[in-house]
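Running log. JK asked me to keep both predictions on one page so they can be read side by side. First protein, sequence followed by its tokens:
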Amino acid sequence: MVELRSGRHVENEEIPSESRACVDTSRGRTLERLEAPAPPAPPPPRIRELRNPAKLWSIIEDGDLLISKPKEEWTDEDIKKISLNNKAKSFMCCALTRQEFNRISACKSVKEMWDKLKLTYEGKDKVKETRIDILVT
């Protein structure tokens, strides 16, 4: 027996198909089988934690990790350096608004991006000193 949406029970014969349809033998119609609701979707994957944020920050402040070998001779350590450089660049780009991103998108290195943002928001040393003097007085 199959329970219909209306609550009525009918006898059926199962039809082997992927649609999981049943036939109401009393009327010859195809009916959908009532099933329990689908389980809730799993939660989205958590953002992986940064394993070594100090290393990423040093790349941002000091510049990219350089590799002087040809690509064919790269070791696993060299590939990790390239990966860290890319993570630092991605980290920087994802933290910005579209307008800020447009300002720095042409930069080649993360350090260049950081220096441009620093100059944009803090200004040169002379400007910083003047601001401090105004705030102090």
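And the second, directly underneath as requested:
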Amino acid sequence: MLLRTTVFAAIMAGTASLALAQGTGSEGYFEVYNNTGGNVVVGFYTNDGSGWSDNWLQDAVDPGQSATARFTADTGPCDQVFQVGWLGTDGGEVLDEPISIDICAASNIYLDDNEIYYD
């Protein structure tokens, strides 16, 4: 069974505007944006070196929507790996390649059709 890391409290799906105040991992939260043309995000997983977390998404994130990720721990490793799960044509989950991230410096994670990046 996958272990939940202590880095995130939750990711809550919902619409968000780029006009909202931007946070950084060092401030305790960041935003995950689904900028795809038609792909639905059904999973978001993290790994701080101790194993993959459970899925942090409570709901799917449709194109044009975003989810807020909040930390639970005051300290923890900044170097993380995250992996996105997409809704497959058969209704199952298709996992993307894991991506390294400095979670403390991230304000936003952008999930585009052919690219995943952060700032």
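Observation for JK regarding the second prediction: DSSP finds no helices and nine strands in the chain.
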